[in-house]
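Let us begin with a simple case.
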Amino acid sequence: MTTSKKRVEALVERVARRITPLASEAEKQKVFAREACARLEEELSGYGVKMHFVGSAARDTGLRGDNDVDLFVSFPRVLEEDFIVKETKRAAKKLFDVGWVMHYAEHPYLKAVVDGFDTEVIPCFEHDEDAPLKSAVDRSPLHMQYLEKRLSARQKRDVRVLKKFLKNAGLYGAELAVQGFSGLLCEYLVLYYGSFYELVKAAESWRPPVRIDLEGRSNKGFDEPLVVIDAIDANRNVAAVLSETNLHRFMALSQAFIEKPSLKFFFRKHVKPTTAQARKALRERGTFTVAMRFKAPQLVEDILVPQLRKSERGLSRQLEVAGFPLLAARSFIHEGKCFMLFEFGSEERPTVQRMRGPFAWDSASVTRFSRAHNTPLKGPFIKGERVFVEVKVKERNALRFLKKLSKNTDVYASGSYLEPGLRRAKFLSGMELVKQAPVQAYDFFKRKEFWW
């Protein structure tokens, strides 16, 4: 064993002692899960259901303090999805008098806090080896069987360490607001590489696209930068939700850790920036920032976040096309409000805009381009291989243009659920944004990866 590997292994053991659930904590979680499974199975016995306790808590790969309990209700395949969702909802509400909320990912499921545990109840169909999966979530009980047979006690420890490593960097979680590493992805990666050390040692040298296939039986092509083939479903990439940015952040994080391993990669201090710090960061930039704010509609995060990002991308694209180049754009939800931030180099753009046309040798396209810009300030003229014209801009002010644009939701293909809010959005200056969301504003203006 190399000196570097010995140092990391000693550190991993120190971290594991701090993050492994206490025996009493783990047992309490398992007792609750068993009892909840028994009650649901009895209530739904007329349909021949089977209950499955799966996920991190069931596989002993969860972190201390995590209270997640995932319960799968497996129905016979002859039933329909709408029916099993309705019956699961009825049974859960009858047995547990709590505020169940229906969520939608690959399949509808119920979520609530029950006896202090963040409980998810997911209806699915029983697996038939001779037939394809009937719903996306039918894989989960099969994942449980697959990983329970293969993950060693030491690897389970390393999965916990990996999760803490990722959480500390804001990279853990498959929800769309994070676009990070799921628990299943963590388990597959440790299983494939053998240990936490071997994974981060490999990740520091990854050059996307990276493809991992534990069973070596998938021929399907994928577009994502990290592809980890599901051992249960060869047509599925377990890393599909992981964003390109977060993959590269993980690679850089791994490089920094291997170079100089320390506890800061697991237990860094999160210092909340003040309003004064955010205000200073804004002033130092000397740019022009506009924020749109409107009330968030009553939607689950699985729907709201993609709608907000779609609207942000659409507005950004139209701003760029219109000649208002952006330094940055971002969207987030804070205290029941949706925010979209747009940062420009300056509030006003020049009075003249150069429009690039077709290749000079393409006479038909040049004719169409000239007709489309028949009263230019300059041109058509050739520069290099292209034809250009220069035109007088109709609107120089970024804020005025954005206000007009935001009301024409069809133009930028906004998220349909957000259209009423977008049309009535309030526009904030950079300083007003700082007052209302200082933490998010500071991160927008002053973001820095903690390991550099």
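The second case is a distinct protein. As before, the sequence precedes its structure tokens.
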Amino acid sequence: MNTLFLPELREMLADANRAELEEFCDALNAGRTAEFMEGLDNEEIWQVLQYAPPDRRAEIFGYFEHERQVEMLASHPVEQAAELVDEISSDDRVDLLQEIDQPRVEQILQLLPAEDRRDIQRLQSYKGETAGALMTTEVAMLAENLTVREALDELGRQASELETIYYLYVVDENNQLRGIVSTRQLVSRLNRPSLTLGEMMESDVISVLVTDDQEHVAEKVERFNLLAIPVVDSGRQLLGIITHDDVIDVVREELEEDAQRIAAVEPLEQDFLRIALMSLSYKRGIWLIILFFAALLTAFALRHYDQELETYAWLVAFIPLIISAGGNSGSQSATLVITAMTSGDVKLTDWPQVLRREAIVSLILGGFLASIGYAFAIFLAPSAFDALVIPFTLLSVIVCGCLCGAALPIMFKRIGWDPAMMSNPFVAGIVDILGIVIYINIARMLLG
């Protein structure tokens, strides 16, 4: 929070100093203007925004936290809220309106132009986390028979309504996507003003379907290094575009969800400090209960081997070591495989190579830790031969942990589930049970 201008802003508001407030709203970058206003309460921010022109007001408003934006739209005069919503980009205003009470939304919609109202309702109809829910309908669409000069003139007429003009989309009379021209291409052809868009466009356009999942959209934008990607229906009719800033939000959201799933927590719909405590407890409790029963299986496994543990009491001291070695190695493998699959480095067809690499790495790690374990086991075991139980178990458990941690996320992906659901605690719970079984059976073979 930057408090540099707070006293001056409050003084200008108290004096209703229109000239200075208008200058403040207009003089700086919109992001910096919002930063200087963060220390104000919502009522004060709203008052300051009224001194900015409508388009500038929406630009500054967009830099405040999403929750503050929702609170301000929900609590201030509906006429002012509608005027602001009318200037916000189509995808952003839909996201905001979805979090406001329906009666208030209806009041705002009634004050919007019919075209904007229909646009909002159309975007609200798309399923969440799809390209349709993510796109903006503010897109530069030009006819292919326009010349360079005519295209520039038309672009100038459309510019104030567009979110971005990185790319110009060439369409036919039915709005079917025919090609794409970058603004750089257009400007570079100014020396040939009679050239048409149809002659200079690229017809092989990378696009996504309106029903595509947002993760698929992000993968395409990253793979082809795009600043924006067009969204079409099954008939190739251009519906909108998804810009790179929206893709960044998707990537951040997906990474947060994956990180939470890896930690065995259901993804949070709200910020950690804002989500209701009961909801937070529920999302954490689901997996804790599952893991609790998994841990009970470990207890039952130990109970099953009571006789062996009574006969060889010194084995009990190494149980935490065995369990942690297997669980930690499995968690490492699961995390590496999940992140590699998320980034696209590992595909389902790569599973033989993944398992082969994990088998080799697990033997290296297991051999190293087994050597250390044997060095300590000699001092606790009745004899050097008896102490061999520990290195053999460590090697076996680490190999088992690594292979389970690598294989289980791939199996989840194969059956259509999110591989991040195969969380670290879940892998550790499985390997704990296997570790006990392996430990006691190796002890039986060597000591029995």
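The mean pLDDT is 88. The first strand starts at residue 141 and ends at 143.
Keep these points in mind for the review questions at the end of the chapter.
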